[in-house]
Design brief:
By secondary structure, the chain is an alpha+beta fold. The protein has eight helices and twelve strands. It has two domains: 121 residues, Gcn5-related N-acetyltransferase (GNAT) (Aminopeptidase), CATH 3.40.630.30; 112 residues, Aminopeptidase (3-Layer(aba) Sandwich).
Amino acid sequence: MDFSLVRLDSADPVKVYECFIKGFADYPIRLQPSYKDYSQFLFRNGYDAKVSFGVIYQRMLVGIALNCPSEIGLYNCGLCVLPKYRGGGIGSTLITKSAGETGSLILECLHGNTEALNLYLKLGFVKLREMYTYAGGVPGLPAEVFEVPLSFVISSFRPSHQNSVRCIERIGARSYRLGDSYIAFSLDGEVHLLSFANLDEGMALLAYAAEVTKKPLKAINVDCSDTMALRALDAVGMKPLASQWELALR
C-alpha cells in the first residue's frame, strides 16, 4: 500500500478526531467520545502532536498513533487504523515510528482485542502487568477523611501513565487519607489512585468519593496484584468493566 507517514502537528485536529472515531468504531468496548471528552482525554494524558503520527492514503488519514511524553519514554493513548485499511502494515509502521522517537513505548491493550495483542507481541512488546477498570454506584455513609498531597498516595505504588501525578493534576484530582489508606479522584467520578490498608478503610474512602462527586464511580487501571483494592471495589458493589494488559517496547 502506497501511504505516507506524517507528524500530527501538521494535521487538522478535527480530522485526527474523525479518524479516532472511525478507527475505534468496532472496538471491543464502546469508545466514541464527544470531541470535548476526547480533547479532555488528550489534555489529561499530556498528548503531544509533535511526537504523534498519522498515515495518509489517497489524501485521507487512515491511521493514527496519539502519543504522550512520559518519564519512561512515550505512552500511546490511542492507536487505530480504519477497518478497511488494516493488514497492510499501517499499525506496525505507526508503532515502529513512535518507539523510535525515544526508544521506549508503553501502551495498553484490552484482553478481548486479540488481533491487536498478537501484533504487539509480534513486534516485541512484553507484558508488564494486568489491570482492571471497575465502574458502578457506591452506597454507604462516608467517613471523616483528611485531604493530603497527591505525593502521599503515589509513593505507595507505581501508577499507570493515566493515573500519574502529572496527568491527574491536570484535571484537578483530589486525594484523601483515612487511617493508613489513600484515594485520589476527580469530580467527574473517576478514581485514579487507590492504596487501601484494610477493607473497611477502602470501602469508606470509596463511599466518600461517591458522596463528593454525586456520581457513579469509575476506577481506572487498578493493578490486578492489588488484592485489597479489588476486594474493596467488589465489596461496595462496583463491577469489572474491562481488563487490559500494560505492555512495553524497549
